[in-house]
Amino acid sequence: MKTFRIIGRNIRDAFKGVFRNFSLSFASISCITITLIVVAVSMVLSENVNNFTLLVEKDVTIVAFIDNDLEEKKIDEIKKEISKMSNVEKYEYKSKQKITKEMMESSEVFDSIMKNWDSSENPIQNTFQVKVKDINKINDTADKIKKLDGITLVKYGEGMIEGLISTFSFIHKICIGAVVALILVTAFLISNTIKITISSRQREIGIMRLIGASNLNIRIPFIIEGLILGILGSIIPIVLTIYGYQKLYDHFGGHLFSDFIKLIKPVPFVYATSVVLLSIGILVGMFGSWRAVKKHLKI
Amino acid sequence: MNVDLIRLTNVKKTYNTGVTAIRDLNLRITKGDFVFIIGATGCGKSTLIKMLYREEKPTAGQILVGGIDVGKLRNGKVYKIRRKIGVVFQDFKLLEKSTVFENVAFALEIFGIPKDEIHAKVVKALDLVGLKDKITSYPDQLSGGQQQRVAIARAIVNGPKLLICDEPTGNLDKETSKEIMAVLNEINKLGTTIIMVTHDIDIVKEMDKRVIELDSGRVLNDFERGTYR
Ligand SMILES: Nc1ncnc2c1ncn2[C@@H]1O[C@H](COP(=O)(O)OP(=O)(O)O)[C@@H](O)[C@H]1O
Ligand SMILES: [Mg+2]
User: Fold this and answer.
1) B14 domain residue, yes or no
2) Residues with a CB atom less than 6 Å from ligand 1
């Protein structure tokens, strides 16, 4: 009950603090707002890139064609070799009958052509379909598979896809860097705001000390003030994220440029993003004021 | 019976500017006493009482206040002694944007005391200093004497054992000073030990209490009650 009252008083004081120095608070709030908007944009961008990369990565498969004359025993040996490779996520043996069946099911034209062929004439080869763990090393893995006895040909999305993915992962890294830098700048600015608040309230703080306020008594309202600034600063970015992304998604019909680049579905993505934005706002606000309080409230 | 509330042993204070404000001071103050500290400007009166509520630390020697070794108190623990001591200054130190009630309640709210209890204590303290009807006023709506009484109410609302006053009447005229002294006398009668720094010799004579006279950081004279003339 006592703790409850103390917390209540602190929150009240913190709100008073926010509104007493409203022009300063407003500057901090704007600063958090701008930062969080950039964070939101970066997050939406990088999460989409990330998502896209994952999707593509899932799709990129090394197809190793096997000599159709190869015996069962040899195929087993290849299977063993592939399973031993460290970059192999999973692999699957697809017989030519299975591939043919799949192709005939997916295309009527193919179906009608293949129907007229005898199975011994079937030009399609048995294959191993290999998924890799790290797409950046797909070249090495493909080379290794190619060198195995009985493999005639290795195919994968050479060039274009890797280029795309490495570009995207570069963008992703830049986004993260920009976000981190912005967060630091904001924390610094909040720290300064709280510092000014503190110095404008030195007299009050002095009186508080005189009547027996502990350091915690004095600090907590400022920390809560930072927290409130963080919460107020994240309102606009959150609203923008929730409505803006939904609008964007609807506008593009769920994918960018082509079917190839799929956007993340707004729900629950925007809510998760909002939670992250709010957390960043709160943490940055609290960290900024904590820093100011630590530096400027020494007895 | 005569328990020492305060005991200073070989206390010395040199500020880091090199100025020595207190030199080898030994002093005992009994619980329940009313003690005046007098002396020329710069003789170390404020420094002495600042060390009592741990605004300053002694350079050497020991200061016991209510059994607590104040000089050894770490910065983070200073509030512990502050909660047992009320302090009143020449310049009142009130919060200008807060009402009389809020100014006094301020000292209790920090500790998480229930609202109705705060209200009762604040009203009682303001009643004691004769300002019960000014509860909703702001400091700038009050006279100097009234403001000082608010400051006294704030200092005692917590029921401290010791009340320290640094020239509480320094900004007030004779008549108002008398009123303040009457209030302090009342508080002392209720059991609070009072240490008061003053320049006003008339007050000292009239009150007829123990008087400690400092000179260059030393005790020049220590008059028992009724011996200062
Ligand atoms: N914070 C301080 N830093 C340095 N010197 C101080 C400080 N406070 C007081 N002094 C010096 O200590 C001496 C005693 O001051 P003080 O205790 O305020 O005297 P009084 O209250 O008797 O007038 C003076 O010489 C004063 O200049
Ligand atoms: Mg002085």
Assistant:
1) yes
2) B 15, 17, 19, 21, 39, 41-47
Backbone angles phi, psi at A121, to 5 degrees: -85, -10
d(CA B184, CA B135): 20
- Its domain, for residue A110, covers 61-156
Residue B69 lies in a domain: yes
Which residues in B40-70 are b (16+ Cβ under 10 Å) and which e?
A: eeebbbbbbbbbbbbbbebbebebbbbeeeb
pTM tops 0.95: no
Which atom belonging to ligand 1 lies closest to the Cα atom of B22?
A: 14
A235 — pLDDT class (breaks 50, 70, 90):
very high
Q: What stretch of H or E contains B35? A: strand B34-38
Among residues A104, A135, A156, the one where a domain terminates is: A156
Q: Is A2 in the B-facing interface, judged by CB distances under 8 Å?
A: yes
- B68 and B93 in a common domain: no
Chain B residues with CB inside 8 Å of A214's CB?
A: 76, 79
Q: Which of B39, B29, B21, B54 is nearest to B197 (CA)?
A: B39
CA-proximal residue: ligand 1, atom 12 (nearest): B21
Contacts of B78 in chain A (CB under 8 A): 209, 299
Cβ-based contacts of B93 with chain A (< 8 Å): 203, 206-207, 210
Look at A209 and B79 and tell me if their CB atoms are within 8 Å.
yes
Reference B89, options B154, B164, B177; nearest CA is B164
Q: Note whether A19 contacts B: Cβ–Cβ < 8 A.
A: no
Residue A157: the pLDDT is 66
pLDDT tens for A153-177 read: 887 765 666 677 777 778 778 878 8
pLDDT in tens, A25-60: 888 888 889 889 988 888 888 788 778 777 777 777
Q: What is the ipTM of this complex?
A: 0.88
- Mean pLDDT, rounded, of chain A: 82
Q: pLDDT, tens digit, for every residue of B96-118?
A: 989 999 999 988 888 788 899 99
